[in-house]
Design brief:
The structure holds two protein chains of two kinds. Chain A is of the alpha+beta class. Chain A has seven helices and ten strands. Chain A has helices at residues 13-16, 25-41, 100-111, 120-133, 138-147, 159-167, 199-206, and strands spanning 2-9, 50-58, 62-68, 71-76, 80-84, 87-92, 96-97, 153-157, 177-181, 189-193. Chain B has a six-stranded parallel β-sheet with strand order 5-10-9-6-8-7, with helices on both faces. In chain B, strands 3-4-11 form a three-stranded antiparallel β-sheet. In chain B, 29% of the residues are buried. Classes of the chains: A alpha+beta, B alpha/beta.
Chain lengths: 223, 400
Amino acid sequence: MKKLEFNISHPFLKTFFPHERVKTKLRVLEILLEASRYMLLNLQIKKADISGKIVLYVDRMSRLFFIQENKSYSITFPFLVTENEDGFFFSYKNEIEINAQTISNLITVIKSNAFIDECSLDFANPIYDYEQDFDEKFWVLLRELILHEDGYIRLEKDEQNYITAKDEGHPKKHPLFHMDIFYTGRCTFKTGLYEEVQELHFIDLLDTNTDCKFFEKEDNTRL
Amino acid sequence: MPRHEVVSLTGISNLCHFYNIPFLRFSFLTDYNKIFRQVLDHLNQLEEGAFEYAFDYILIDERQDFPKVFFELCERVAKKKIYIAGDIFQDIFENTKGIELEVNVILNRCYRTDPRTLMFAHAVGLGLFEKKKLNWFPDEYWGAIGYSVNRNEKNIQLTRDPIRRFEDLEDEDIPSMVLSKYDRTDQIIDIIKEIKNKNVNITPNDICIIVLDDDRSIFEYMDSLAYKIISELNWEINRAYESKGKVNDAIYLTNANNVKGLEFPFVICVTTAIKNTYRYRNVLYTMLTRSFIQSYLLVGNDNGLDVWRSGLETINSQRAIQTIEPTESEKAVIKSNIRNLQKQKNISYKDFLSKIFSELKIKGECKEKLEKALIESDIEKFDKDKTVKFINANKEFYCK
């Protein structure tokens, strides 16, 4: 088991907890790459600037946890994590090192207009360039990222929407503590929670080495 | 009467459409020469009477970026006249083409860059402060790029006419070019703080940071610099090497690849050491001239930079570049170097390596392994001497 923790300093909070809700795989991919970049820098953050943290947890499952007061979420971490006396490294199947340049090239491609172009040749052009000038496995890596299952799951304490839902007479439509699974409009759904889930329980929930959690029928006295 | 009666901002796709010619995409295999040649060949094959002019007049900018065949094509499709504008000096090693001065009008004043910065950029780009010059021009060409040449035997003094660029700025009082040894990231933070203090209305958009080196480590460096600026100055960073363009309210951070055509009040160039390759010197020249108030050049290893420092002092105190004219045999070497350089131009890094491998008779798995090692190394791309040295020093470890 590997567990690495990285404090998020205040100015970077918006990178990992953007104002707009995550709605696309592309956005998840961007966050994954920005988080990888941030972790590789392994910064020492002054206590006063700490506004959240990223936990990289690798066991049978491999996940990133983004932890902040009132909101935490997790996505899968598709890279291999290697630790040695010099620190830690990321790679794709030990074939391509996921370093600052790889990350930058991937971000350049997924944020470019070519990536969403309607013409397949325009889409392929920059990828082909990186295959020539950077790494011949660049497309293989990018394809893996596009196709990998991101396993998005979010925990929230959302007072504002809970109060609105309660005032409208259906508090169970937006429980104060809840878990959002998936992110696109047609997939996502909430599961109510009786209380706030702490970081360790969140990791435990998704750790396939520990016992499973059970859904229980709701207990109105606890809501 | 041509069909385009209105002013049209156009590209080759428009001509392909007009003449119903298959459109070719630019790629590694299809360069501009091939694309324009195809259109011209098609037009030349048309029967008399079937041809129609696409335009009355054509205005072309950035002449230096187009091959000769493009102008032939424009002449063919314009009924009356074409006007061509371009920069004769965008690449400081392009002057051997000869055709550059055959023009109707030369505009030899630069209103963007402070003359002191421009002079320093020319001098370091061309190696004018050093014993071994990288390029040298005939007097006529010096004149075309805005210099007066004062000769005292081999000692040459190059001067430019002063230019008043800003009505409201006493720019003579500001050192337009600052050359410093670079030993810590905090220096850049300090420079930005100083710029902020001295310029109340400054915004992040006014500053551009350019990393001149070309190796893999610059990405890590730019990451740590970006985080430092965001954390300590609370200014946003536009990683232009990823966004490929300007972003509002953010410092423009890039390697040398994404600055073409842009200008900023303040430019901070960072490099680990000054290299002697033509490619690097051209990048250095171009990047230093992106500023219109101040350029900073921060150099990690400043060995040998004393001649640059004293050269800059002369520029500041006498508004002149002081240099020594190369001998005739030195000029011949320069000319031959530049000719070789132009032959290498426009080839991909992979092709550049392939050519060297074939010269050194290295093939197969051995070639692949060395190629990978070269890409991973910190050797400046397209530096032939160092590349050959690396291959020769390492081939016994990579080849059976």
